[in-house]
Description:
The structure is a single chain. By secondary structure, this protein is mainly beta. The protein has a single domain, classed as Lamin Tail domain (Immunoglobulin-like, Sandwich). It has one helix spanning 6-26; strands at 29-35, 45-50, 56-57, 62-67, 70-75, 79-80, 85-89, 99-105, 111-114, 118-119, 126-130, 143-147. The strands form three sheets. Strands 7-2-1-11-12 form a five-stranded antiparallel β-sheet, with no helix packed on it. Strand 8 and strand 9 (111-114) form a beta hairpin. The protein is globular, with a radius of gyration of 18 Å.
Amino acid sequence: MSLVSGDVKIALLAFCGLVAICSLSLGDVVINEAELSPSDNGTVWVELYNAGDGAVDLAGWTVKIEDKPWAGSIALSGTIDPKGFKVAEGQPSWVTSGNGTVYLIDINGIVVDKTPKLNDKGHNDFTYGRFPDGRNTNTKADFFFMRASKGRPNGV
């Protein structure tokens, strides 16, 4: 004899499926490229990439750049298409050392991706980016110092 009715089992399975689907879509967006030392007094920026097969709503998400004791946050909005890019621009007044760690934080305050500590003091057109786009082994080896490709595929 079953201790749980058929309706409860169906509801529980549906809930678990929804949680699994939501978890997958949150994990598909990564920090793909970061410019922490722009040339010609440019603005700091971070490029996101959606490696998934569905669009992700970024409303309420945040990009945080941290170089203790300094930190800057960029509020995100809109959506990012599958296999698409979205650039988050910092404030023109930000003066960074070219060092820092970048965090991608979802609407629930959970860090869904972060870079290793990046060091770029060159004030040139080179950035740290993933190659290929979206590569995510959770190691420092995901990021390479390369020519900037803001809003476009890396390494092309």
